[in-house]
Design brief:
Elements: E1 2-3, E2 8-10, E3 18-20, H1 36-47, E4 50-51, E5 58-59, E6 67-71, H2 72-77, H3 83-87, E7 93-97, E8 110-114, E9 132-136, E10 139-140, E11 155-162, H4 166-169, E12 176-182, E13 191-201, E14 206-219, E15 222-233, E16 238-239, E17 243-249, E18 258-266, E19 278-290, E20 296-297, E21 300-309, E22 313-314, E23 322-323, E24 330-338
Parallel strand pairs: 9-12, 16-23
Antiparallel strand pairs: 1-22, 2-13, 3-13, 4-5, 6-11, 7-8, 9-10, 11-12, 13-14, 14-15, 15-19, 17-18, 19-20, 19-21, 21-24
Length: 339
């Protein structure tokens, strides 16, 4: 099997990808109505990227380690939705599909590497855990199969730390660490956002997504933030019709002689065009409680289901983006995280 991926081409000219801001209150500050000093201060604050990679808030330029930070604006502008999207934005980050073909090459099975450092020969994981840790806020989401492919929406930033990070992040961070930092509940006002998208996969099917969030202050010291998403990625691999002949042999330790009986198997029930589609849906809810000026509690819960059908590889000897499979192929990931 030869691994082959086709990347989605956005069909913005054909379908409307709209963003609707909902709720009441101020959605953004109008610098035109602010005093010059306040406007200049806001512009300066917008230019500063604050990261928490060293367990404390620091200006990115002051952090004494190799770190790449992808901000909310960059994530939105480049329509980053998953691991494959943001991995392309980190120069020292690479990945390899976890399987040798079939459904194992689907989403959520990427083995992640920083600077080409792997835990085993030929980029295979020979140890109990990978060499790159992945975190959602402060919660590790690294598994031996690969990092959970969390949908990227309403994310404050993604921090990629190259080099050994075992001192701060322990096991599975010998080569580096990836941190996905979510937006926290905000006490300043009620606001939200809804995004709708339709897209077309090259050589494949149509896809679509819907995602949204709402931020709700509950009291002067308490706020909640709820996020939800549903996404379908269209397939691009065709499972074509085929037959297999199986000749019956007489029972014997060495295989036996043919009996002349032949059984013909076909895959008619599994034949389908663009059959490797992926469906991802989930939700996230967070609560912020300011106990006093020094202490804040921010409990959060997230759940996601990701279902992938079919094979994500084309088969040698067949046409482009074609395979011939005789068994159902499915991959289903369920994740639940609380912090």
């Amino acid at each position: 099997m030869t691994a082959s991926r086709s990347f989605a081409r956005r069909a913005c000219g054909l379908f409307l990808a709209s963003t609707a801001l909902i709720g009441t209150g101020a959605f953004a500050q109008d610098t035109a109505n602010q005093p010059p000093a306040a406007a200049n201060q806001q512009q300066a604050d917008d230019d500063v990227i604050v990261v928490t990679a060293t367990k404390r808030a620091e200006n990115l330029q002051d952090v004494p380690i190799a770190i790449t930070a992808i901000t909310t604006k960059t994530l939105d502008d480049l329509q980053v939705n998953d691991f494959d999207d943001y991995a392309r934005l980190v120069p020292s980050l690479s990945s390899k599909a976890g399987g040798g073909g079939g459904s194992a090459d689907g989403p959520g099975t990427n083995n992640v590497y920083f600077r080409g450092v792997a835990s085993g020969e030929n980029a295979n994981h020979s140890a109990s855990l990978p060499s790159v840790g992945t975190y959602l806020d402060e919660q590790p989401i690294t598994t031996i199969q690969g990092a959970l492919d969390i949908h990227i929406f309403d994310i404050a930033r993604i921090e990629a730390l190259a080099g050994p990070q075992g001192t701060l992040y322990g096991a599975s961070s010998q080569a580096g660490t990836i941190r996905i930092i979510t937006n926290k509940p905000d006490l300043s006002g009620t606001y939200g956002e809804v995004n709708l998208e339709a897209n077309k996969v090259a050589h494949g099917d149509w896809g679509y997504s819907g995602e949204g969030f709402v931020n709700l202050p509950i009291s002067s010291n308490m706020a909640a933030r709820v996020v939800g998403w549903y996404r379908r990625d269209g397939g691009y691999i065709d499972n074509i019709r085929g037959e297999r002949e199986m000749t019956e042999r007489a029972p014997s330790f060495d295989g036996g002689a043919p009996t002349g009986n032949t059984l013909v198997l076909d895959n008619d029930e599994f034949v389908e065009d663009d059959y490797n589609d992926v469906t991802t849906y989930g939700a996230r809810a967070a609560l912020k409680i300011d106990l006093n000026d020094s202490w804040t509690v921010t409990p959060q819960i997230i759940g996601q289901v990701q279902k992938a059908d079919g094979s994500f590889a084309e088969e040698r000897g067949l046409g482009h983006y074609e395979t011939m499979q005789f068994n159902p192929e499915k991959l289903k990931d369920r994740s639940g995280i609380s912090t």
